[in-house]
Amino acid sequence: MKIEEVKSTAKTQRISAHTHIKGLGLDENGSAIQSAAGLVGQEMAREAAGIVVDMIKSKRMAGRAVLLAGPPGTGKTAIALAIAQELGNKVPFCPMVGSEVYSSEIKKTEVLMENFRRAIGLRIKETKEVYEGEVTELSPVETENPMGGYGKTVSHVVLGLKTSKGTKQLKLDPSIYESLQKEKVEAGDVIYIEANSGAVKRQGRSDNFATEFDLEAEEYVPLPKGDVHKKKEVIQDVTLHDLDVANAKPQGGQDIMSMMGQLMKPKKTEITDKLRKEINKVVNKYIDQGIAELVPGVLFIDEVHMLDIETFTYLHRALESAIAPIVIFATNRGRCEIRGTEDIISPHGIPLDLLDRLLIIRTLPYSRQEIEQIVKLRAVTEGLQIDDEALSSLGELGTKTTLRYVVQLLTPAALAAKVNERTSIKKEDIEEVNALFLDAKSSAKILSQNQDKFMK
Ligand SMILES: Nc1ncnc2c1ncn2[C@@H]1O[C@H](COP(=O)(O)OP(=O)(O)OP(=O)(O)O)[C@@H](O)[C@H]1O
Ligand SMILES: [Mg+2]
Protein backbone atom coordinates (compact mmCIF):
# COMPACT_ATOMS: atom_id res chain seq x y z
CA MET A 1 0.00 0.00 0.00
CA LYS A 2 1.27 3.44 -0.88
CA ILE A 3 1.22 6.06 1.79
CA GLU A 4 4.08 8.28 0.73
CA GLU A 5 2.45 9.96 -2.20
CA VAL A 6 -1.11 10.08 -1.05
CA LYS A 7 -2.63 13.37 -2.06
CA SER A 8 -5.62 14.73 -0.25
CA THR A 9 -8.87 14.49 -2.15
CA ALA A 10 -10.88 16.56 0.31
CA LYS A 11 -13.52 18.57 -1.49
CA THR A 12 -12.77 22.24 -1.32
CA GLN A 13 -15.99 24.10 -1.69
CA ARG A 14 -16.83 27.68 -1.18
CA ILE A 15 -20.39 28.00 -0.07
CA SER A 16 -20.97 31.66 -0.36
CA ALA A 17 -24.45 31.67 1.16
CA HIS A 18 -22.92 30.52 4.43
CA THR A 19 -19.59 32.35 4.51
CA HIS A 20 -20.61 34.27 7.62
CA ILE A 21 -20.74 31.09 9.67
CA LYS A 22 -17.63 30.45 11.71
CA GLY A 23 -18.81 27.95 14.31
CA LEU A 24 -21.67 27.01 16.61
CA GLY A 25 -21.16 29.98 18.94
CA LEU A 26 -21.45 28.10 22.23
CA ASP A 27 -19.94 29.15 25.56
CA GLU A 28 -17.70 26.83 27.60
CA ASN A 29 -20.73 25.17 29.21
CA GLY A 30 -22.15 24.36 25.83
CA SER A 31 -25.00 26.88 25.99
CA ALA A 32 -25.72 28.87 22.87
CA ILE A 33 -24.81 32.56 22.88
CA GLN A 34 -27.74 34.39 21.21
CA SER A 35 -25.58 35.73 18.42
CA ALA A 36 -22.05 34.37 18.06
CA ALA A 37 -19.73 32.91 15.43
CA GLY A 38 -22.14 34.03 12.72
CA LEU A 39 -25.14 32.12 14.08
CA VAL A 40 -28.23 33.81 15.48
CA GLY A 41 -30.97 32.23 17.62
CA GLN A 42 -31.94 28.57 17.02
CA GLU A 43 -30.42 27.94 20.46
CA MET A 44 -31.77 24.43 21.08
CA ALA A 45 -30.55 23.06 17.77
CA ARG A 46 -27.13 24.65 18.23
CA GLU A 47 -26.74 23.20 21.71
CA ALA A 48 -27.76 19.78 20.46
CA ALA A 49 -25.22 20.14 17.65
CA GLY A 50 -22.62 21.05 20.27
CA ILE A 51 -23.25 17.76 22.06
CA VAL A 52 -22.86 15.91 18.77
CA VAL A 53 -19.51 17.66 18.25
CA ASP A 54 -18.36 16.59 21.73
CA MET A 55 -19.37 13.01 21.03
CA ILE A 56 -17.51 13.03 17.73
CA LYS A 57 -14.40 14.48 19.33
CA SER A 58 -14.42 11.86 22.07
CA LYS A 59 -14.98 9.22 19.38
CA ARG A 60 -18.27 7.96 20.78
CA MET A 61 -20.33 8.56 17.69
CA ALA A 62 -19.02 6.27 14.98
CA GLY A 63 -21.80 4.56 13.07
CA ARG A 64 -24.48 6.84 14.46
CA ALA A 65 -26.66 9.22 12.60
CA VAL A 66 -28.28 12.57 13.27
CA LEU A 67 -31.12 14.22 11.37
CA LEU A 68 -31.61 17.97 11.14
CA ALA A 69 -35.27 18.52 10.38
CA GLY A 70 -37.18 21.74 9.95
CA PRO A 71 -38.88 24.09 7.48
CA PRO A 72 -36.88 25.62 4.59
CA GLY A 73 -34.47 28.39 5.51
CA THR A 74 -34.27 27.60 9.20
CA GLY A 75 -30.53 27.06 9.21
CA LYS A 76 -30.13 23.29 8.82
CA THR A 77 -27.34 23.51 6.28
CA ALA A 78 -25.85 26.40 8.23
CA ILE A 79 -25.70 24.37 11.45
CA ALA A 80 -24.16 21.38 9.68
CA LEU A 81 -21.43 23.61 8.31
CA ALA A 82 -20.93 25.11 11.76
CA ILE A 83 -20.37 21.57 13.05
CA ALA A 84 -17.68 21.16 10.39
CA GLN A 85 -16.02 24.38 11.53
CA GLU A 86 -16.08 23.25 15.15
CA LEU A 87 -14.45 19.94 14.28
CA GLY A 88 -11.50 21.71 12.68
CA ASN A 89 -9.47 20.45 9.78
CA LYS A 90 -8.11 17.34 11.46
CA VAL A 91 -11.48 15.60 11.45
CA PRO A 92 -12.75 14.86 7.95
CA PHE A 93 -16.09 16.40 6.98
CA CYS A 94 -17.58 15.36 3.69
CA PRO A 95 -20.63 17.27 2.47
CA MET A 96 -22.90 15.88 -0.23
CA VAL A 97 -26.43 16.37 -1.49
CA GLY A 98 -28.83 13.45 -1.80
CA SER A 99 -29.26 13.91 -5.52
CA GLU A 100 -25.51 13.41 -6.11
CA VAL A 101 -26.06 9.66 -6.11
CA TYR A 102 -27.92 9.81 -9.42
CA SER A 103 -25.07 9.74 -11.88
CA SER A 104 -25.33 8.07 -15.23
CA GLU A 105 -21.79 6.77 -15.01
CA ILE A 106 -21.35 5.61 -11.47
CA LYS A 107 -23.60 3.30 -9.45
CA LYS A 108 -25.63 4.95 -6.71
CA THR A 109 -24.10 2.82 -4.02
CA GLU A 110 -20.64 3.53 -5.38
CA VAL A 111 -21.15 7.28 -4.96
CA LEU A 112 -22.29 6.70 -1.40
CA MET A 113 -19.37 4.41 -0.61
CA GLU A 114 -16.89 6.91 -1.96
CA ASN A 115 -18.29 9.67 0.21
CA PHE A 116 -18.42 7.31 3.16
CA ARG A 117 -14.70 6.74 2.84
CA ARG A 118 -13.98 10.43 2.38
CA ALA A 119 -15.45 10.87 5.84
CA ILE A 120 -13.17 8.38 7.58
CA GLY A 121 -9.75 9.65 8.49
CA LEU A 122 -6.60 7.81 9.38
CA ARG A 123 -3.80 9.39 11.36
CA ILE A 124 -0.57 7.64 10.58
CA LYS A 125 2.40 8.00 12.89
CA GLU A 126 5.71 6.87 11.57
CA THR A 127 9.24 7.22 12.79
CA LYS A 128 11.37 8.20 9.88
CA GLU A 129 14.99 8.92 9.28
CA VAL A 130 15.19 12.55 8.22
CA TYR A 131 17.44 15.50 7.66
CA GLU A 132 15.82 18.49 9.27
CA GLY A 133 16.82 22.10 9.74
CA GLU A 134 16.67 25.68 8.60
CA VAL A 135 18.02 26.12 5.09
CA THR A 136 21.20 28.18 5.18
CA GLU A 137 22.39 27.45 1.70
CA LEU A 138 20.79 26.10 -1.44
CA SER A 139 23.00 26.02 -4.48
CA PRO A 140 22.68 23.78 -7.50
CA VAL A 141 26.00 22.78 -9.00
CA GLU A 142 25.93 22.66 -12.79
CA THR A 143 28.06 20.72 -15.22
CA GLU A 144 28.27 20.58 -18.99
CA ASN A 145 25.51 18.50 -20.44
CA PRO A 146 27.04 15.02 -20.82
CA MET A 147 24.86 14.40 -23.89
CA GLY A 148 26.72 17.14 -25.69
CA GLY A 149 24.95 20.10 -27.12
CA TYR A 150 24.41 23.39 -25.40
CA GLY A 151 23.06 24.07 -21.97
CA LYS A 152 24.03 22.71 -18.63
CA THR A 153 22.47 20.22 -16.25
CA VAL A 154 22.37 20.15 -12.51
CA SER A 155 24.76 17.47 -11.30
CA HIS A 156 23.99 17.86 -7.61
CA VAL A 157 22.72 20.32 -5.04
CA VAL A 158 24.53 21.61 -2.01
CA LEU A 159 22.13 22.15 0.85
CA GLY A 160 23.05 23.63 4.20
CA LEU A 161 20.80 22.79 7.16
CA LYS A 162 21.00 24.42 10.57
CA THR A 163 19.54 23.29 13.89
CA SER A 164 20.03 24.65 17.38
CA LYS A 165 22.85 22.14 17.76
CA GLY A 166 24.83 22.67 14.62
CA THR A 167 25.00 22.94 10.85
CA LYS A 168 25.44 20.29 8.22
CA GLN A 169 26.12 20.48 4.53
CA LEU A 170 24.54 17.85 2.30
CA LYS A 171 25.27 16.94 -1.28
CA LEU A 172 22.00 15.88 -2.86
CA ASP A 173 20.77 14.19 -6.00
CA PRO A 174 19.29 16.48 -8.70
CA SER A 175 15.88 14.78 -8.31
CA ILE A 176 15.69 16.19 -4.81
CA TYR A 177 16.46 19.60 -6.27
CA GLU A 178 13.22 19.29 -8.24
CA SER A 179 11.20 18.51 -5.14
CA LEU A 180 12.86 21.42 -3.36
CA GLN A 181 11.75 23.68 -6.17
CA LYS A 182 8.24 22.23 -6.11
CA GLU A 183 7.91 23.04 -2.42
CA LYS A 184 9.35 26.51 -3.19
CA VAL A 185 12.07 26.10 -0.60
CA GLU A 186 14.41 29.02 -0.08
CA ALA A 187 17.03 30.01 2.46
CA GLY A 188 15.46 30.62 5.84
CA ASP A 189 12.78 27.92 5.51
CA VAL A 190 12.55 24.99 7.88
CA ILE A 191 12.33 21.73 5.97
CA TYR A 192 12.91 18.05 6.36
CA ILE A 193 13.98 15.49 3.80
CA GLU A 194 13.14 11.84 4.26
CA ALA A 195 16.32 9.85 4.02
CA ASN A 196 14.77 6.83 2.30
CA SER A 197 12.46 8.37 -0.25
CA GLY A 198 14.02 11.79 -0.67
CA ALA A 199 10.62 13.40 -0.17
CA VAL A 200 10.89 17.05 0.80
CA LYS A 201 8.50 18.68 3.25
CA ARG A 202 8.52 22.39 3.91
CA GLN A 203 7.28 23.06 7.43
CA GLY A 204 7.33 26.85 7.35
CA ARG A 205 9.56 29.85 7.70
CA SER A 206 12.07 29.90 10.52
CA ASP A 207 10.89 32.28 13.22
CA ASN A 208 14.28 34.00 13.12
CA PHE A 209 12.73 35.74 10.12
CA ALA A 210 9.38 36.43 11.76
CA THR A 211 9.71 40.20 11.59
CA GLU A 212 10.74 40.13 7.95
CA PHE A 213 7.39 40.34 6.17
CA ASP A 214 4.53 40.96 8.50
CA LEU A 215 1.86 41.01 5.87
CA GLU A 216 2.51 37.63 4.40
CA ALA A 217 0.32 34.73 5.43
CA GLU A 218 3.23 32.59 6.46
CA GLU A 219 3.58 29.99 9.11
CA TYR A 220 6.57 30.54 11.35
CA VAL A 221 8.16 27.57 13.04
CA PRO A 222 10.96 27.42 15.60
CA LEU A 223 14.49 26.32 14.71
CA PRO A 224 14.55 22.51 15.05
CA LYS A 225 16.39 21.07 18.02
CA GLY A 226 18.84 18.18 18.02
CA ASP A 227 20.97 16.92 15.17
CA VAL A 228 20.31 17.55 11.50
CA HIS A 229 20.29 13.82 10.79
CA LYS A 230 17.88 12.10 13.15
CA LYS A 231 14.80 9.96 13.65
CA LYS A 232 11.60 11.95 13.64
CA GLU A 233 7.99 11.08 14.31
CA VAL A 234 6.00 12.13 11.26
CA ILE A 235 2.22 12.42 11.45
CA GLN A 236 0.08 12.25 8.34
CA ASP A 237 -3.67 12.73 8.13
CA VAL A 238 -5.36 10.99 5.21
CA THR A 239 -8.82 9.65 4.50
CA LEU A 240 -9.60 6.13 3.40
CA HIS A 241 -10.68 7.55 0.06
CA ASP A 242 -7.25 9.18 -0.34
CA LEU A 243 -5.72 5.75 0.13
CA ASP A 244 -8.15 4.17 -2.35
CA VAL A 245 -7.31 6.75 -5.01
CA ALA A 246 -3.58 6.61 -4.43
CA ASN A 247 -3.54 2.85 -4.76
CA ALA A 248 -5.87 2.62 -7.72
CA LYS A 249 -4.09 5.14 -9.90
CA PRO A 250 -1.34 3.75 -12.04
CA GLN A 251 1.28 6.03 -10.56
CA GLY A 252 4.91 5.93 -11.47
CA GLY A 253 8.10 7.85 -11.78
CA GLN A 254 9.59 8.68 -15.13
CA ASP A 255 8.50 5.59 -17.04
CA ILE A 256 6.79 5.70 -20.39
CA MET A 257 3.39 4.67 -19.10
CA SER A 258 3.14 7.64 -16.81
CA MET A 259 4.27 9.97 -19.60
CA MET A 260 1.56 8.53 -21.80
CA GLY A 261 -0.86 8.84 -18.94
CA GLN A 262 -0.14 12.51 -18.65
CA LEU A 263 -0.74 13.03 -22.32
CA MET A 264 -3.93 11.08 -22.61
CA LYS A 265 -5.47 12.04 -19.29
CA PRO A 266 -6.77 8.56 -18.59
CA LYS A 267 -10.25 8.09 -17.24
CA LYS A 268 -10.66 7.77 -13.53
CA THR A 269 -9.39 4.33 -12.65
CA GLU A 270 -11.86 2.16 -10.93
CA ILE A 271 -11.71 1.62 -7.23
CA THR A 272 -12.98 -1.89 -6.77
CA ASP A 273 -14.49 -3.49 -3.73
CA LYS A 274 -11.55 -5.82 -3.71
CA LEU A 275 -9.11 -2.93 -3.47
CA ARG A 276 -11.10 -1.42 -0.64
CA LYS A 277 -11.09 -4.70 1.26
CA GLU A 278 -7.35 -4.95 0.80
CA ILE A 279 -6.85 -1.43 2.08
CA ASN A 280 -9.10 -2.09 5.05
CA LYS A 281 -6.96 -5.10 5.87
CA VAL A 282 -3.75 -3.08 5.82
CA VAL A 283 -5.39 -0.27 7.76
CA ASN A 284 -6.57 -2.69 10.43
CA LYS A 285 -3.08 -4.12 10.69
CA TYR A 286 -1.65 -0.64 11.13
CA ILE A 287 -4.21 0.11 13.81
CA ASP A 288 -3.37 -3.11 15.66
CA GLN A 289 0.31 -2.28 15.51
CA GLY A 290 -0.36 1.17 16.90
CA ILE A 291 1.05 2.92 13.82
CA ALA A 292 -2.28 4.36 12.77
CA GLU A 293 -5.35 5.66 14.49
CA LEU A 294 -8.84 5.84 13.05
CA VAL A 295 -10.49 9.27 13.02
CA PRO A 296 -14.20 8.86 12.24
CA GLY A 297 -15.37 12.06 10.61
CA VAL A 298 -18.70 13.32 9.39
CA LEU A 299 -20.63 12.50 6.26
CA PHE A 300 -23.24 15.21 5.75
CA ILE A 301 -26.09 14.33 3.41
CA ASP A 302 -28.23 17.37 2.68
CA GLU A 303 -31.70 16.96 1.13
CA VAL A 304 -31.78 13.37 2.30
CA HIS A 305 -35.32 12.81 0.98
CA MET A 306 -33.70 12.66 -2.47
CA LEU A 307 -32.20 9.25 -1.65
CA ASP A 308 -34.22 6.21 -2.67
CA ILE A 309 -35.07 3.00 -0.88
CA GLU A 310 -32.10 1.18 -2.38
CA THR A 311 -29.56 3.73 -1.16
CA PHE A 312 -31.24 3.95 2.23
CA THR A 313 -30.89 0.21 2.72
CA TYR A 314 -27.26 0.32 1.64
CA LEU A 315 -26.58 3.23 3.97
CA HIS A 316 -28.24 1.47 6.84
CA ARG A 317 -26.02 -1.55 6.37
CA ALA A 318 -22.88 0.54 5.94
CA LEU A 319 -23.56 2.31 9.23
CA GLU A 320 -23.35 -1.06 10.89
CA SER A 321 -19.84 -1.87 9.66
CA ALA A 322 -16.83 -1.59 11.95
CA ILE A 323 -15.34 1.35 10.07
CA ALA A 324 -18.09 3.95 9.73
CA PRO A 325 -18.30 7.72 10.04
CA ILE A 326 -20.97 9.74 11.79
CA VAL A 327 -23.71 10.58 9.32
CA ILE A 328 -25.66 13.84 9.54
CA PHE A 329 -28.79 14.15 7.42
CA ALA A 330 -30.83 17.24 6.73
CA THR A 331 -34.28 17.59 5.22
CA ASN A 332 -37.12 20.08 5.02
CA ARG A 333 -39.77 17.50 4.11
CA GLY A 334 -42.55 16.37 6.35
CA ARG A 335 -44.37 13.15 5.60
CA CYS A 336 -43.70 12.13 2.04
CA GLU A 337 -43.23 9.16 -0.20
CA ILE A 338 -39.96 7.29 -0.01
CA ARG A 339 -38.32 7.52 -3.42
CA GLY A 340 -38.24 4.26 -5.30
CA THR A 341 -41.28 2.83 -3.57
CA GLU A 342 -44.79 2.78 -4.93
CA ASP A 343 -46.75 4.17 -2.05
CA ILE A 344 -44.82 4.02 1.21
CA ILE A 345 -45.35 7.31 3.00
CA SER A 346 -42.92 7.95 5.80
CA PRO A 347 -41.85 10.91 7.95
CA HIS A 348 -39.15 12.94 6.12
CA GLY A 349 -39.23 10.38 3.32
CA ILE A 350 -36.89 8.15 5.34
CA PRO A 351 -37.68 4.45 5.92
CA LEU A 352 -38.88 3.77 9.46
CA ASP A 353 -36.10 1.36 10.41
CA LEU A 354 -33.43 3.93 9.56
CA LEU A 355 -35.46 6.68 11.20
CA ASP A 356 -35.43 4.61 14.35
CA ARG A 357 -31.65 4.88 14.60
CA LEU A 358 -31.54 8.64 14.27
CA LEU A 359 -31.16 11.37 16.81
CA ILE A 360 -33.37 14.15 15.48
CA ILE A 361 -32.54 17.83 15.90
CA ARG A 362 -35.39 20.21 15.13
CA THR A 363 -34.95 23.69 13.70
CA LEU A 364 -37.70 26.29 14.17
CA PRO A 365 -38.75 29.36 12.16
CA TYR A 366 -37.11 32.63 13.14
CA SER A 367 -38.68 35.59 14.88
CA ARG A 368 -38.67 39.00 13.23
CA GLN A 369 -35.84 40.19 15.44
CA GLU A 370 -33.69 37.19 14.59
CA ILE A 371 -34.30 37.70 10.89
CA GLU A 372 -33.09 41.28 11.21
CA GLN A 373 -29.96 40.12 13.00
CA ILE A 374 -29.20 37.55 10.30
CA VAL A 375 -29.80 40.04 7.48
CA LYS A 376 -27.47 42.47 9.22
CA LEU A 377 -24.78 39.78 9.46
CA ARG A 378 -25.16 39.00 5.77
CA ALA A 379 -24.94 42.70 4.88
CA VAL A 380 -21.65 42.95 6.77
CA THR A 381 -20.24 39.82 5.05
CA GLU A 382 -21.26 41.09 1.64
CA GLY A 383 -19.82 44.52 2.41
CA LEU A 384 -23.17 46.32 2.06
CA GLN A 385 -24.48 49.23 4.08
CA ILE A 386 -28.07 49.24 5.18
CA ASP A 387 -29.92 51.72 7.38
CA ASP A 388 -32.11 50.75 10.33
CA GLU A 389 -35.42 51.51 8.68
CA ALA A 390 -34.59 49.31 5.71
CA LEU A 391 -33.46 46.56 8.07
CA SER A 392 -36.71 46.60 9.96
CA SER A 393 -38.75 46.53 6.76
CA LEU A 394 -36.76 43.47 5.68
CA GLY A 395 -37.48 41.90 9.07
CA GLU A 396 -41.19 42.42 8.60
CA LEU A 397 -41.05 41.12 5.05
CA GLY A 398 -39.13 38.07 6.31
CA THR A 399 -41.90 37.04 8.68
CA LYS A 400 -44.38 37.10 5.77
CA THR A 401 -42.09 35.42 3.25
CA THR A 402 -38.95 33.52 4.21
CA LEU A 403 -35.55 34.27 5.64
CA ARG A 404 -33.87 33.15 2.47
CA TYR A 405 -35.96 35.49 0.34
CA VAL A 406 -35.04 38.58 2.32
CA VAL A 407 -31.38 37.57 2.46
CA GLN A 408 -31.49 37.27 -1.30
CA LEU A 409 -33.10 40.69 -1.69
CA LEU A 410 -30.01 42.33 -0.22
CA THR A 411 -27.88 42.28 -3.36
CA PRO A 412 -30.54 43.65 -5.76
CA ALA A 413 -31.44 46.28 -3.16
CA ALA A 414 -27.81 47.34 -3.01
CA LEU A 415 -27.84 47.70 -6.79
CA ALA A 416 -31.00 49.79 -6.64
CA ALA A 417 -29.35 52.02 -4.04
CA LYS A 418 -26.36 52.42 -6.33
CA VAL A 419 -28.57 53.42 -9.25
CA ASN A 420 -30.10 56.05 -7.00
CA GLU A 421 -26.58 57.19 -6.18
CA ARG A 422 -26.57 56.14 -2.58
CA THR A 423 -24.07 53.93 -0.77
CA SER A 424 -26.47 52.76 1.90
CA ILE A 425 -29.63 50.69 1.30
CA LYS A 426 -32.82 52.54 2.26
CA LYS A 427 -36.41 51.42 2.68
CA GLU A 428 -37.31 52.67 -0.83
CA ASP A 429 -34.75 50.33 -2.36
CA ILE A 430 -36.28 47.37 -0.55
CA GLU A 431 -39.75 48.32 -1.71
CA GLU A 432 -38.52 48.83 -5.25
CA VAL A 433 -36.91 45.40 -5.58
CA ASN A 434 -39.68 43.67 -3.65
CA ALA A 435 -42.09 44.95 -6.29
CA LEU A 436 -39.89 43.57 -9.04
CA PHE A 437 -39.35 40.09 -7.63
CA LEU A 438 -41.69 37.53 -6.18
CA ASP A 439 -41.18 35.30 -3.20
CA ALA A 440 -42.21 31.67 -3.48
CA LYS A 441 -45.47 32.06 -1.58
CA SER A 442 -46.79 34.99 -3.64
CA SER A 443 -45.74 33.25 -6.81
CA ALA A 444 -47.64 30.13 -5.80
CA LYS A 445 -50.69 32.25 -4.99
CA ILE A 446 -50.64 33.90 -8.41
CA LEU A 447 -50.29 30.51 -10.05
CA SER A 448 -53.33 29.13 -8.31
CA GLN A 449 -55.40 32.27 -8.95
CA ASN A 450 -54.60 32.29 -12.65
CA GLN A 451 -54.58 28.60 -13.29
CA ASP A 452 -56.45 28.94 -16.57
CA LYS A 453 -53.79 31.22 -18.08
CA PHE A 454 -50.92 28.78 -17.74
CA MET A 455 -50.08 25.75 -19.84
CA LYS A 456 -50.89 22.52 -18.15
N1 LIG B 1 -29.29 30.93 12.82
C1 LIG B 1 -28.71 31.49 11.76
N2 LIG B 1 -27.77 32.43 11.93
C2 LIG B 1 -27.20 33.03 10.86
N3 LIG B 1 -27.49 32.74 9.59
C3 LIG B 1 -28.43 31.81 9.35
C4 LIG B 1 -29.07 31.14 10.42
N4 LIG B 1 -29.96 30.28 9.90
C5 LIG B 1 -29.88 30.39 8.57
N5 LIG B 1 -28.95 31.31 8.22
C6 LIG B 1 -28.62 31.70 6.85
O1 LIG B 1 -29.85 31.79 6.13
C7 LIG B 1 -29.77 31.15 4.86
C8 LIG B 1 -30.72 29.96 4.77
O2 LIG B 1 -30.36 28.96 5.72
P1 LIG B 1 -30.05 27.45 5.36
O3 LIG B 1 -29.60 27.33 3.95
O4 LIG B 1 -29.13 26.89 6.39
O5 LIG B 1 -31.49 26.82 5.51
P2 LIG B 1 -31.94 25.31 5.42
O6 LIG B 1 -32.64 25.00 6.70
O7 LIG B 1 -30.81 24.44 5.03
O8 LIG B 1 -33.02 25.39 4.27
P3 LIG B 1 -33.48 24.28 3.19
O9 LIG B 1 -34.41 23.35 3.90
O10 LIG B 1 -34.17 25.06 2.14
O11 LIG B 1 -32.24 23.58 2.72
C9 LIG B 1 -28.32 30.77 4.70
O12 LIG B 1 -27.64 31.80 4.03
C10 LIG B 1 -27.83 30.64 6.12
O13 LIG B 1 -26.43 30.85 6.20
MG1 LIG C 1 -30.33 23.35 3.30
From TrEMBL:
Its EC number is 3.6.4.12. Residues 62-365 form the AAA+ ATPase domain. Coiled coil: none annotated. Its main location: nucleus. One of its GO terms (cellular component) is nucleus. InterPro entries: AAA+_ATPase, P-loop_NTPase, RuvB-like, RuvB-like_C, RuvBL1/2_DNA/RNA_bd_dom, TIP49_P-loop. It catalyses: ATP + H2O = ADP + phosphate + H(+). One of its GO terms (biological process) is cell division. GO terms for molecular function: ATP binding; ATP hydrolysis activity; DNA helicase activity; transcription coregulator activity. Proposed core component of the chromatin remodeling Ino80 complex which is involved in transcriptional regulation, DNA replication and probably DNA repair. This is RuvB-like helicase.
